[in-house]
Structure formats: C-alpha cells, structure tokens
Amino acid sequence: MSVIGITFGNTSSSIAVASGDSKVDVIANPDGDRAIPSALSYINSDEYHGNQALSRIIRNPESTVVNFRDFIGKKFSEINDKFSYGAKPQDDNDSIIYQINGEKISVSDLAAKHFKQLKLAAEDYIGKEVEGAVLTVPTNFTEHQREEIIKIAEKAGLKILQLINEPSAALLANLSEDNKLDQDKIYVVGDFGGIRSDGAIISVRGGVMTILSTLHEYGLGGDLLDDSLSEFFAKEFEKKYQVNPRKNNRSLAKLKAESIVVKKTLSNVQTSTCSIESLAEGFDFHTSINRLRYELTARQPLSKMTEFIEKLIEKAGLEPLDIDEVLLVGGSSNTPKLASNISYLFPESTKIVSPSLDSQALDPSELIARGAALQASLIQSFDESEIKESLQPIVVNTQHLNKPIGIKDSEGKFQPILVAETAYPIKKSIEVTNGESSSVVVELYEGKRTIKETVVERQPESEEEEEDDDSDESDEEPEIKKEVVYEVGTKLAELGLNDLKPNAKLEVVVNITQNGVLHLTGRELKQGGQVVKGEITSN
Amino acid sequence: MSSIVLPSGKVDGFKADHKYSTPTRRPIEPVGRYFLAHASRTLRGHTWSEFEKLEAEKNVKQIEKNEDDDLGDEEQSEELLEHDPREWKTANLYAVLGLSHLRWKANEDQIRRAHRKQVLKHHPDKKSASGGLEHDSFFKIIQKAFEIMLDPIKRKQYDSIDTINDPKPPTKSKDYDFFEVWTPIFESESRFSNKQPVPKLGDINSTKDEVDQFYTFWSKFDSWKTFEFKDEDVPDDTANRDHKRYIERKNISNRKKLKQEDNKRVIDLVERAHNEDPRIKLFKEQAKKEKAAKKWDREAGSRKAAEEIAAKKAAEEEAAKKAAEEAAASKANSKKAKEAAKAAKKKNKRNIRNAVKDNGYFGDESKATTIDADVDLLIEKFDDIRLGEVANKVKDQDASSVKQILQDVAKELASAGSIDVSHLKYFN
Ligand SMILES: Nc1ncnc2c1ncn2[C@@H]1O[C@H](COP(=O)(O)OP(=O)(O)OP(=O)(O)O)[C@@H](O)[C@H]1O
Ligand SMILES: [Mg+2]
C-alpha cells in the first residue's frame, strides 16, 4: 500500500512519500519539478499542468489559472482576485468560476484536476497506485473549506486519510529528522510563500504539539519580492531604451517570469544575469544584478516579513526570549536576507533553522510535504474508523497547564518537571537525591516566569581599533543579556522522605490524569524503599 | 539529573497546599507518533459519556480568530428559555440559535455552527449532568429552529414574518435626519425584493435621476413575502373533513389579507419617505428656479429692445443736458470776457492818456488840450489789438519816446486811411 503526503499551496504544490524507516522522498513530477506550480492551462482542449501551465501565462493568460487554492470553499464575494494573474475568477451566483475557452469551470473542478495531476505524478514515481494521502491546509482554513477540499480530492480519486495543519507538518518533518520531538521547546514556524505569509507558535511537550497562536498575512510573500525585482529591471530597461515595458501585459509577464528566476538564483549565489528576449518593442534586455542590490531593492517586503514574525510573537503574548527555535518554511524562506533579518529579532540562544544559516536544514519548500508524508506513513496501518476516533474532540481538545510545575532544590531554585503548556494526561518523573541530609522534603511548586538580566562585558575588538575611534566608545552601552528564568511561585504540596542514607537515589513522579487530578509521588529507588503519595486538583 | 538535591527538612507524609492554576483546553495537533500514543492512552479502556464529549468540545481555546467565532454565543433571555415548545412558532427563532444579530443575513454555515453551539450549551444530557432540571423544552425549540432555517422554503416563510426588529420610521412631525432614519429602513426592506439588486436611498448629493429611479423602483416594489407561517394549524383528523377544509380556506384568505396589508404598508412607507425626502423639496425648488430662469430667457428679446430705447433716450437726454450746460457756460464766459476786455480797453486808454499827461505833454503843456484831443482821436481809431500794443509800448517810456510812438501810430493810421490827418492838430 502506498500513501503519500501532499501540500497544495496557492503558488506551488509538493508530493512526498515516506519509506518505513522514516526516510522521505520529495517526488519530482515528469517535468522534474519538486515544487510543482499550482497552475493549469487549457489550450485547444489540451490540459497543461505545473510549470508547463505557468509558462503559458505569458502567451495565453486568459486560459491559464494560478493562485486559486484559497478560493476553495469560498464565495465570490469573499475573495480577492488581486493575484489571479491569468484568467480572472468570476461571479456565478456568488460561487466562483473561471471562463476558459468559453466554458465555465469551477474552483472545485480546477482543484480536482490539479489533484489528479499530482496523483499521476506520484504514481509515475512510485510505480504503484496511490491509495491514500495526508493533505495539509493552512491553520485558518475554515471547517467548511476543510470539508470542501476533502470532497474535491476524493472526487479526483485521492483518498484523504487525514487533513493536517501546514505548520505542524513542517515542524513534524523538521523534528523527525534527528529525533528531536521529545525535547520540550517552543517553536516559531514562519511560512513565507508566494502570496501569503503564515506564522504559528507551537509548543512541543512530550512530543505532542499544540498551536499556541497564529498569524496570517494575505498578500505578503515572494510575489512582492518578484515585483520589486521586476520594477528594478523595468527602470533599467526604460533608461536604456526609453521604452516603458510596464505598458503591456505580455512584457510584464516576461519581466515577472525572469524576476522569479533571478530571485531564486540570488538565494544561492551572489550575482545573477537577467535576460529577456524581446521585452518590449522588440528590444532584448540583458543585465545582471548582485545579491546586495537585490536585497536593497526588495528591502521593503523583506522587512515586512520580519515584522510579521515580530507581530506573531507579540500576538501570542510572548517575547523573542521565550522562543527556542524558529523554523523557516515556504519557498521564500530560501532568501538568505530574510533568515538573517529574522535572526536579529532573537537572542543568540534562539536557533534559526534555515538553509542559509544552517547547512543541515532541510529545504524549506519541502518541509510541509515531508511532514505530510511522515504522517501518512504513520497512520497508513490504521483503518478509517480508528483514525476518526483519534480525531474526536475528546482526544484532541486537551487541557494544558498554564504554568510549569516542579520542585524546589536545596538551593531554593525551581526545577521544572512539567513545563507550561504541557497537555495532560501526562506522567513525568525526575531523579533526585538527598545529599547528606537524612530527611528531605519534596516541595511541589508552580513556576513563576522572571527575566534574568546579565551584563555582558564587551570585549574590545582590538586595541588599535579602540584608539582609532574613541568617539564610538562613549556611545557603547553595556550589552545586557536577557533570559527567561523560572522561580518558585505558588506552593502546591509537599511530602517528606525520611531516614535516608546519604546520597540515596530518589525519584519524584508527577502524574496528571485525564480528569485533571495531579498525583505526586516521592520514592526511594531501591527494593522495598519508602513511597509517599498524595494528590491535588486544579482551580 | 541526579545532581538535583532536595532541601532537607522533616515532614511526615503528604500535605496539599494549593490547587494548581486553571488549565487551558486547547486542541493538540494530531500528528506524529507521540500524538498516536496520546490518542491510544486517552481511548484505551474508556467509553466517554455524551456529556464528557460535549465538555471536550466546549471552551476550547480557539486560535484562529474568525469574525464568526463568537457566533451563537449570545445569551437567550429567561423568557425565551422558558418558552412553551408547543408554541415554538411564536419564539424568536434566530434568538433561539443565538443569531439575532444576523437574522436573515445568517448563511447556512453560520446557522450550522450556531446550532452546534446551542446543542453544546442546551443539550439535555448536559443539563442533567450539571444538576439542572431534566427538561428539554428549549432544546426542542432549538431543533425546530434549526429545521426551519435549513429548509429554504420554510426559512423564507419565517423571514417574511420576522420583522419585529426591523428599523421603523419615526413618529410623524418629529425632527429627524432623513438619511439616518430611512437608509436602514429601505436597506432592510430590500431583502424582500424579488428583483435584485435594489437601488439604494443614496444621500443628499444624489442626482435627480438616481432619486427618481429609486422611487420608481419602490413604487413598484415586488416582494416575495409569504405568510404561511401565520397559518392556523390544520387539524390532522380525517374525520372532520369540512372543518379541515374550512381551516385551509381560512388560512389561504388570511395569507392573502396579510400580503395585501404588507403591500399597502410598503406603499405607505415609500409615500411617506417621498414626502419627507429633502431632495424632493430641493428638486422642486430647483425646478421652480429653473422655470423662472427660463421665463427670464424667453423674454430676453423684448426686454433688450426696451432697454436699448431707454438707453438711447437716456443718452440723448444726457447729451442735451450737457450741451445746455456747455452753452450756458460759454455764454457766461463771453460775457465775462467782454467785460474783461472792456476793462482792459479802459485801462489801456487810461494808460496811454496818462503816459502823455505824466510826461508833461512832451514839454508842450500849453497845448495840452489839443494833445488830449488828438490822443482821444487816435485812441478812438485804434482797434483792440493796437490799443493794447500802444498801451504796452508807452508804458514807462520817457516823453520823447511816447511822443514818437504816438506820432508813428498817427502816421500809420493816416497812411492806412483810417484817420483824416486834417483832424489831427498836434500829431500831424
Ligand atoms: N530558492 C528560492 N529563493 C527564493 N524564493 C523562492 C525560492 N524557491 C521558491 N521561492 C519562492 O517561494 C514562493 C512559493 O513558496 P511556496 O511554494 O511555499 O508557496 P505556496 O505555499 O505554494 O504559496 P502561497 O503562500 O502563495 O499559498 C514563490 O514566491 C517562489 O518564487
Ligand atoms: Mg504556503
């Protein structure tokens, strides 16, 4: 049985397949593309898909459809056709249709055809029939949109095993890579696509993910970067030939297509050429641009993307200090400048996962599809009713601790056992000791978040330099390093362990059951050792 | 890990101090193997009561802030909660679903979601679990409302009569802002129009055409309202056929009556708005002004001729007056000049005579009378110009010069034949 993971973006889609040992392959379609443009074009009763469709937008815009994913399950009055570069969506009794070669085609039909093509590409690669798929959607897809997209996929012959959220899929792929799921951390997942940006703050507790907060910005994405480049090239062309290339759609489409190529090239190397045959009035255009110039040109959208991450954290009521890792996802996250800008928002202790900062990082364009494939392989052995049962609200909607719970050590420090946002039921234990004392107390506390500031002595970079510009010296403020430290807050309970030998091995267990009862156990880790227990409940 | 050392102290057994903070119910992400473990842990050996399941759906912290998130959250009034389910038709069915802010605007999706919320809130299982009364009367109304709302025909029937909260026109003769009051009224009535879109009321700057179109549309308003919802229940029993038919007929005629009343209501509404529309007044005034302006234009020809005649007459009068004034002035001037000339002559004559006298008659005082007679004769023969000349010449001259001047003049006059030399006794 083969199951696959699919991500369907407005700009591009990817399919991936996981083998038993959790190795994931992102599948290239017959054109050799792993990021398959979500585009369809109909010319003389032939259907073109992916890049073949996208390239037709220059010559046949009216029969080429792009950027329609977000229209699924929406009414005409609810959508914005700003990014419908090819055929424009039209109002058909408030449902959305396209008029292609004189025929009406609905968004669902288009999406179904797209799914069919993806399925074909997957089967072509695997050599077997695809029996099921895990599909990803943005977190703000409505219930209705989720139902719709499942129907559409099934109409296309794709059985949807499960629908999962894009950021969770991306994080799953990232954490599965080197088994980091069991580390309790708070992640920012920043997904920068073509025509939208999506952010999520996800806590991982005992391997279970919870989305704490999200943010979405429609219109912010790689398209804006393309536009900045297009405008840059247009200006240069105009200067050279005194011809305005923005006047006709075909020139604009050519500019855009080449800008995308240049943009992607500049993610990898420092300079790129740009050549467009017959850009306008028969003039060819050849030039080159370096990364720095591009970054200047696209400064505005790039800084908006950075601000987007700032807003996401703010909206969650958190601070950059609270974030352990930032996972950059989506095609636009390949942009080195974006990754470095974002890294400046965070303290050094926060890790930024992006290919330009971390050569180990997976391709951000592929993360979501990989996660979907992993999930598909995980659940492929379950039958439908089992999956359904696991997705019931009673299973999924779980209680989460508001504050960390832990114990006080002999120095009065708070030692967490369960961190905030841990979902229960949960059971966790830590090993402790009594040191030299024969009687000790296990004091259970809630942690209190504080911010510890430490002044970092600045190392003068070099003696000479300091002498050179002493004007700078007076401006320099001592650098203050901040970190989140939990101190003991409210005391919840205590228990005593007495008559112990020095340095005995002890264990403290905290177990919160489904109904919210917290069982605290302290015990001696030896045959027939003492055990003390008690329980408390929540407010 | 084992490096954590517990604080020393002597406590016997376990002591609870405090409850831990209220947890937050959030959906976890159903992905990854740890989730699967969580699911099987949660499900293993458990059967969940309906109530527990409902609980798990409730109060879940929603991350995606949809504008519709608090859909159905509105509280029902005590009265509504106590409503007799047999009389469900008289309950405000949108309020029952917690949708009274949307009413006819609620779409199917919103209705479903709001209904779901009501079920969670008012499910009889839940009520009994929370120690409430075991009664499901309100729940029955919820289900009835949901049924009506999802059936397009029944919903139309209900929407037709759900007008209690529609905006109403103000009491007459009260001062009010026309647009503020009427815009929502027409907007709300628009929903009943068979023809869509319905023209909007507009504002004070709307053109006459727009306003005319608006009233034309509304004066022919064609509404889809239908009044089945007000029907009296038709008895089920087949035994009493006549009674059944009677009720049916009564219902039909009642519907017709209500429909007529409603049509009349719209006509009155439109008429009143038209009467009180400040734009209509404005257009009337404007029309009046335009008419006056047209009349003015029409009479322009004759008015112009009359104006020209009047102007000509005025000009002529003016000219005549001016001429008269000038004549008078010049007349006055010549008189003055004559008088001045006379005075000048006199003065000149006197000056000449005096010049002779003052110079002692040129030493011939004995002949003074003769000389005076000759001077007088000469002076009489001088014209005005010569008089002036001579008077000027003799002025301040000595005796011989004066004598010479006069002799020369005499000679001149004689040669000109204007004086008879014989008449001159001295200057000859
Ligand atoms: N190597 C690269 N460097 C820079 N940008 C890239 C690179 N590869 C892809 N992109 C850009 O990423 C964007 C597409 O990203 P992605 O495939 O994640 O979008 P999507 O999720 O399909 O679209 P959307 O966000 O519009 O729904 C495009 O603007 C594309 O040009
Ligand atoms: Mg995306």
Characterize the structure shown.
With 539 residues, chain A is α+β, with helices and mostly antiparallel strands. In chain A, the strands form eight sheets. In chain A, strands 1, 2, 3, 4, 11 and 12 form a six-stranded mixed β-sheet that branches. Chain A has a five-stranded mixed β-sheet with strand order 15-14-13-18-19, with helices on both faces. In chain A, strands 22-21-25-26 form a four-stranded antiparallel β-sheet, with no helix packed on it. Mean pLDDT of chain A is 93; it is low at 463-474. By secondary structure, chain B is mostly helical. Chain B contains 16 helices and two strands. In chain B, helix 5 (108-122) runs antiparallel to helix 7 (137-150), helix 13 (300-358) packs antiparallel against helix 14 (368-381) and helix 13 crosses helix 15 (384-394). Chain B is elongated. At the A-B interface, strand 12, helix 4, strand 15, helix 10 and helix 12 of A face strand 1, strand 2, helix 1 and helix 2 of B. Strand 20 (397-400) of chain A pairs antiparallel with strand 2 of chain B. Residues 9, 191, 193, 330 of chain A line the site of magnesium ion. Chain A: It holds the Pfam family HSP70. Chain A: It comes from Candida verbasci.
Low-confidence stretches of chain A: 463-474
How many β-strand runs of chain A?
29
The residue fraction in helices of chain B comes out at 55-70%
Rg over CA atoms of chain A: 28 Å
Q: What is the number of helical segments of chain A per DSSP (H or I, 4+ residues)?
A: 14
Question: What structural category do the secondary elements of chain A indicate?
Answer: alpha+beta
Oligomer: heterodimer
Task: Name the beta content range of chain B.
Answer: under 5%
How far the N terminus sits from the C terminus of chain B, by CA atoms, comes to 169 Å
The structural class of chain B is mainly alpha
Bound molecule types: adenosine-5'-triphosphate, magnesium ion
What gross morphology of chain B would you assign?
Answer: elongated
- Mean pLDDT, all residues of chain A: 93
